[in-house]
């Protein structure tokens, strides 16, 4: 197993500056609200979609439990569609 010699911020800055890194940074691009992370954090859907403290607990579990450098909230991809003007009928 590779030993981390950089912090997540150092790793990202190095990548952005095209410098070498100790390992490839891992960032969630869609969402990390998995059942395992819900169990680990104690924050479950649907409350973790709308209650700020639960959103934070579930998002932070991606870093603390899964070891991902980045966290992401919200946990769905509808926010981007709505921001671009889409009207959604199946998600309330």
Give the arrangement of secondary structure elements.
Layout: H1 8-16, H2 35-41, H3 47-50, H4 52-64, H5 78-83
How would you sum up this structure, described in words?
- There is one protein chain.
- By secondary structure, this protein is mostly helical.
- The chain has one domain (8-83).
- 42% of the residues lie in helices and 0% in strands.
- The chain has 5 helices and no strands.
- It has helices at 8-16, 35-41, 47-50, 52-64, 78-83.
- Helix 2 (35-41) packs across helix 4 (52-64).
- It is flat.
- The N and C termini lie far apart (44 Å).
- The mean pLDDT is 84.
- Overall number of domains: 1
Task: Return Rg in Å.
Answer: 16 Å
Instruction: Give the helices and strands as they follow along the chain.
Output: HHHHH
Q: Kindly estimate the percentage of residues that lie in beta strands according to DSSP.
A: under 5%
The count of β-strands is 0
Q: What's the mean pLDDT score?
A: 84
* Biggest sheet overview: none
Can you tag this structure with a few keywords?
92 residues, mainly alpha, 5 helices
What is the compact description of this entry?
The chain has 92 residues and is mostly helical. 42% of the residues lie in helices and 0% in strands.
């Amino acid at each position: 197993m590779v030993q981390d010699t950089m912090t997540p911020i150092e790793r990202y800055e190095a990548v952005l500056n095209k410098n070498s890194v100790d390992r490839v940074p891992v960032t969630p691009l869609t969402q990390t609200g998995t059942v395992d992370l819900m169990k680990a954090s104690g924050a479950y859907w649907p409350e973790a979609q709308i209650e700020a403290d639960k959103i934070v607990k579930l998002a932070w579990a991606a870093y603390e439990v899964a070891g991902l450098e980045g966290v992401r909230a919200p946990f769905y991809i509808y926010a981007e569609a709505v921001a671009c003007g889409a009207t959604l009928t199946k998600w309330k």
